Amino acid sequence: MKVLTVFGTRPEAIKMAPIVKELEKRKNIESVVAVTGQHRQMLDQVLSIFNIKPDYDINIFKPGQTLTEITTNSMLGLEKVLDEVKPDVLLIQGDTTTVFSASVAAFYKKIKIGHIEAGLRSGNIYSPFPEEANRKLTGILTNYHFAPTETNRDNLLREGYDEKNIFVTGNTVIDALKYAIKDNYVFDEEILNSIDYENKKVILLTSHRRENIGQPMENIFKAVEDVVMEEKDVEVIFPVHLNPKVREIAHKYFDGKDRIHMIEPLDYLPFSNLMNKVYLVMTDSGGVQEEAPALGKPVLVLREETERMEGVLADTAKLLGTDYKVIYDNFKNLLHNKDEYNKMAHAINPYGDGNSAKKIIDILEEEFEKEK
């Protein structure tokens, strides 16, 4: 069996790395890797960490690229790769524009598609944007739906997908995290080594969602600023996204605040190990909602909707939205309410046991044998 894996962004690369490594172990599978370079620098960092050398690099990235440019340039580049490789199966992960583009390109060639992390749904086509549309459109073209959880499986069943094509596997992000966390990890950024994680309540903040830019992000940052000013034992670490609009709002609220540390975006290894050290995580990211609970870290989700409700239902995360008072009150509560903090910190992570990649490739081999 010839399997082509395609990905283009850092989150995809992190979650696909365990898949690529598992494929490399299988003697009866020819593994080919292609990247679009939708994210360039951040993607390359992950490839280096996991020692993955793509067979094809379409390298579409350019500053300020639009969603239309990402889509069309990815499809044009992948068309050539598909014609050359002629894979039996295309494997894609998640909900980026690379994923959508790759699924359409493969569909046009009548190549079977395996969608890893299938069945996530927020219920709002514009949130997250454009990811909710990407994953729904990809699902229509998919042959093998690898759903991380039963909730994701149920979402697909409700949409009319055949249950024999849906497989619950856990999420490969937990596989990757097991690889990344190191005892006594030393950061390149000296400020991260100097923070007292044992005696201070250190908060990891991430915020970059398109739909949060503007007043929602102003609310988030103002709530964080106010709590930090009131709580002398609290420090915040904020790897600031490269988006200039995010940076502008961050500087407005956080400049000159000694216990709010704005740093450059972190590579996967330092970010994962930082997450392992902090008291709690505040985020509008998707993947962090899965990773932090595996490390026993409560998550405050700074979004109006989440496609990862399993964490909310399992009490590993709280969905707060972007209202100033809700964020302020919940942040303060987790700083002072030990019972609530411990309930979240010790809840069982619903996203898997770290063996998802093996399960997915086992299933793929079994399905391929059935169809011979």
Automatic annotation (TrEMBL):
TM helices/strands, residue ranges: none
Alphabetized UniProt keyword annotations: Isomerase
GO terms of molecular function: UDP-N-acetylglucosamine 2-epimerase activity
Keyword Isomerase attached: yes
Top-rank taxon, per record: Bacteria
Pfam families: Epimerase_2
Family the entry assigns: Belongs to the UDP-N-acetylglucosamine 2-epimerase family.
UniProt xrefs under NCBIfam families: wecB
Protein's UniProt name: UDP-N-acetylglucosamine 2-epimerase (non-hydrolyzing)
Organism: Anaerosphaera aminiphila DSM 21120
